[in-house]
Design brief:
The chain contains six helices and seven strands, in the order H-E-E-H-H-E-H-E-E-H-H-E-E. It is α+β, with helices and mostly antiparallel strands. The protein has helices spanning about 10-30, 75-90, 90-95, 120-125, 145-150, 155-165; strands spanning about 50-55, 65-70, 105-115, 130-135, 140-145, 180-190, 200. The chain has two domains: about 10-110 and about 185-195, Glycoprotein, Type 4 Pilin, CATH 3.30.700; about 115-180, 2-Layer Sandwich (Dna Ligase, domain 1). Strands 1, 2, 3, 4, 5, 6 and 7 form a seven-stranded antiparallel sheet that branches. It comes from Haloquadratum walsbyi. This is AMMECR1 domain-containing protein. InterPro entries: AMMECR1, AMMECR1_dom_sf, AMMECR1_domain, AMMECR1_N.
Length: about 200
């Protein structure tokens, strides 16, 4: 399995990552095309995973798409583009992002900085810093580092919700047959009010 390089993005790199994700979503939705990263920042050549989340600013801010991978052999710039396209497609939340929605979306990007192997996940996880990957047989699921903070979950709830999301029993994360991997991630997001991009 490819091993992520240790990565740390500057604010400017993180802002560009979000811009690239937004451009990729718009290129896919408007033209059905794959955006090319173009001349990439040095950090975008790192081979590490990335996730893209798309939320609506309307109503309760429902999730419109979320996709990516914690491990990849691709360069970060290409991983961002691929995750953005998948998040905008019908493969993510069941319905494709459409043109009228584009001005009412908030795009965020999570860059995988480092993987953390652990046999004691509850002791080792830091809410808001670590994302989570659950693997068992053919079941695989992951969660963004910011999700437990956004939902006011404690550590056990974080693992329980991830297990359920993977289609497993709520306590599957405690079983030896289940692999739990933590990853440190940097999250950058468009501000809902249209201001500058923020790091969470």
């Amino acid at each position: 399995m490819p091993k992520a390089q240790a990565v740390s993005l500057s604010y400017d790199d993180g802002a560009r990552a979000v811009e690239l994700a937004r451009e990729s979503v718009e290129s896919y939705v408007l033209h059905g095309q794959r955006e090319q990263p173009g001349s990439m920042r040095d950090s975008f050549y790192s081979r590490t995973g990335a996730f893209v989340r798309i939320r609506s600013t309307r109503g309760r801010g429902r999730l419109r798409g979320c996709a990516g991978s914690s491990r990849t052999s691709d360069q970060l710039g290409h991983a961002i583009v691929d995750a953005a396209i998948q998040a905008a497609s019908s493969d993510s939340c069941g319905s494709e992002v459409e043109q009228p929605e584009l001005s009412n979306l908030v795009v965020s990007v999570c860059i995988v900085c480092e993987h953390v192997s652990t046999d004691t996940p509850v002791e080792d996880v830091e809410l808001g810093t670590h994302g989570l990957v659950i693997d068992r047989n053919d079941k695989h699921e992951w969660m963004y580092p910011t999700i437990p903070v956004e939902n006011d979950w404690n550590k056990q709830q974080f693992f329980t919700r991830a297990s359920r999301k993977a289609g497993l029993s709520p306590l599957a994360w405690q079983d030896e047959a289940t692999t739990v991997t933590l990853f440190e991630g940097q999250v950058f997001r468009e501000r809902p009010d249209g201001g500058s991009i923020e790091e969470l």
